[in-house]
Model the fold of this input.
Amino acid sequence: MAKPAVILVGADKGGVGKTTVARTLLDYFGAHQTPARAFDTEFPRGTLKRFHPDVTEVVNVTSVADQMKIFDTLGGADSSVTVIDVRAGLLSSTLQALSDIGFIESAKKGQITFSVFHILGPTIASLNEIAETARFVGDASYFLVKNRINDTTFFEWDPPTYNSYFKQIKGASEISIPKLNEMACEQVEVASTPFVSFIANKTARDEPANYSFVLRGYVRHWLGNVWSEYDRVKLIDLVSPKAEDSARQAAS
Amino acid sequence: MSFRSSITIVASPRSRVGKTLLARLLTEFYAQKGGAVAAFDLNAGGGTLARFLPEHTIVSTIGDIKGQMALFDRLIAEDGGAKVVDLGYESFESFFALAQQIGFAEEALKHAIAPAILYVITPDATSVEAYRGLRRRFPQAVLAPVHNEIFGSAQHRDKYQLAGSGETVVRLPALAPGVRKFVETPPFSFSHLQPAAAVDMPPEVNAELQRWLRRAFREFRELDLRILLADLQSSIRLQS
Done:
């Protein structure tokens, strides 16, 4: 069985589209036949749960019992990837908690594949968090995600300042999430389905829906671009090298 | 799969090559065959098509998402009707860029609607290049070059490659100047010519117009058969 992989999706402030990124990840793993589950830490009412109810559980990440629920089941669950949508402002404390329970230690030993998706907001203030989180991440694969989904102007940052933070985490990669037009975003929200269901014109219950073809087209194009970013950083290789190998064998 | 309806896009990156005349003719051609026809006017000036065919025309825009939804969602609606798009040269690039991005041709085929592009050809390099671009970007659509004979007899076959052996250039016959005057003054409808007196048309002009109309409609019928043939061939390929 594949080594369990954990992806932490977090941001230091709200409204930067963290849950959107978590949703694209779940869709991506689904498309790659890589079983994934998710924990939504927006306790008690999770947004991620609304879009992916079958694989998502809402947890309170500050409670010890719930921390156990997440990490004790890593090896046993039939999902090889666990995506954790960390509530805004809790990225550092979640990493601290992970460190306390020895999770980061097992990642270092190579028993768990650990990745962090750090979603960046459009202001320089959000970079401070990078400095704070850097000391916890150790050997984790660290992705700095520039989320442009809702923004027209973005990252008017001073490059030297940005780079000075960026360099604090060794081996960090950048991922850029392109813009999706407001109306398409809104309609997927209203539909409350995974992006792939919206594109396939299906309701949450897998029944035929009647979404606008233009909006479905926009979402498909956008999701394709997001996924090509994940392909570029070889995300599948990272979380499930075996699955990729067997897929390659099957293809050849 | 067999096509129940069609979408015909009349296009050229050049202005004043006879697109609107062709769109009017096509709309009336489908109307005469019986059945619903919607004509979408995508010209910046707007209004010309609506003045001739008020009951069929929908003035459209793709400048914002609402307009794009109103146009493309309606184009692929399975209402069984024929659809004609009079694509103004200003919108040529933005229309096809959007169509490609949202997967328009694939979606149309999924709904058993045949997408066809009637491309009015001119000998200039821009036009030749744009035509090649459409071949590359929309391999699923029928792309038919249209030669407007008002520009002379040369069909530029060397410049405009045809896809299959069965393909030919669609010819739009030239209108005699005496007839043009009537045809291009709204209100005018090709199909409602019976009370010719209503437009004060001399009988010999009417006779010339009918000849012209028969030639043009024959070209359209052949085009329709070609679209059907392309459909049959693709379903044969799928089965084998």
